[in-house]
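Let's do one together. I've listed all components of the complex below, 417 residues spread over two lines.
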Amino acid sequence: MIAVLGLVVGVVAGLLVRPEVPAVVEPYLPIAVVAALDAVFGGLRAMLDGIFDDKVFVVSFLSNVVVAALIVFLGDKLGVGAQLSTGVVVVLGIRIFSNAAAIRRHVFRA
Amino acid sequence: MSNQDETTEKAPKAASENPLRKKLPEEVPAETQETPKSDAPQLPSQAPKAEASEPPETEPEQPEPPLSGRQRLVNGLWPPRLSRAQFIVALLLFGLGFGLAVQVASNSDGDGALRGARQEDLVRILDELDDRTQRLEEEKQGLEDQRTELETSSDQAEEARKQTIEKEKQLGILAGTVAAQGPGITLTIDDTKGTVEADMLLDAIQELRAAGSEAIQVNGVRVVASTYLTDASGGAVSVDGNKISAPYRFKVIGKPQDLEPALNIPGGVVQTLEKERATVTVERSDKIIVDALRPAKQPDYARSSSQ
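Okay, and this is what the predicted structure of the assembly comes out as:
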């Protein structure tokens, strides 16, 4: 419950404050958000499976974000940033979908 | 990376050592006494109907009935527990929500598409814009050329139209279809004795023409190239079929300094007429108005061969 509240409060705060995104993190923010979404869906699925562990969630969340940003950074340095970030988004999207399917099976039993 | 990966590899461990399930037993009894129908079969997700069909007979002899996912969700949601884990997760989710909202907000700005774009994308966009600008410039140049062309051609058409009108007027003066005015003379032949005949008037007209007259009318009849004069009964003269009688008043447009001497030369028109005892007066004028008209006649056979 508190976690959901945290999400809602974060969205509201982001909409209200509308901070200027620093130029340094600008290219990494979208990918990081997608990676974090993947971690959240994975955590939700683990919770429904009854094997949720907050430590695992925290580590996976942070490592997801960091690795995604790292991949984009590396891709930018290698000159394939656009393609690599597309690839990351595709992979994360697939994972999000599979996790969402598991969640759906749990919640709707269908 | 995510929990799911960890859980799949951890699943056997979780079954054996089970660090998570340690939390469950303290929750499960509370759960079971709250919702007595939680004694779902071993595969709750596959037998929801069975669960629904056998509601009340709850035997809590099973020590740890596995919770269904839905119940776990409800469990996690409703009684809010203030644990450290919840706070950490809430913090992370706050960060996620914040980043999400910020990204969405910055992306939905007017220049959001460019703000998030990479350097090479920006270069490509700039190139495309340059190309487009160039194409549009070329198009503009072409259209401007076309406009200039049309303007000059319309100017030319206007000029040609003016010239045509001018020429029409000039030709109209010669053909007698338009009125004319200008310097000239007035030649008045008063024939009291009835001795003036058509050929004398014709001589006068010829003399005037030879002296450069440009428009002539006599007693309200315009004299043109096809004008003919005949003697009419009663000492009158017929000009183009119009009978006129003395005094004959010629209005002539031309250079007065040429016309008057041409009439007055010795043995010329004036002397000849005076010999017939007619009174002839010639007076110059700065403004002679020749306003007698004759209708334009469409030629029946002759066609312009210029075009």
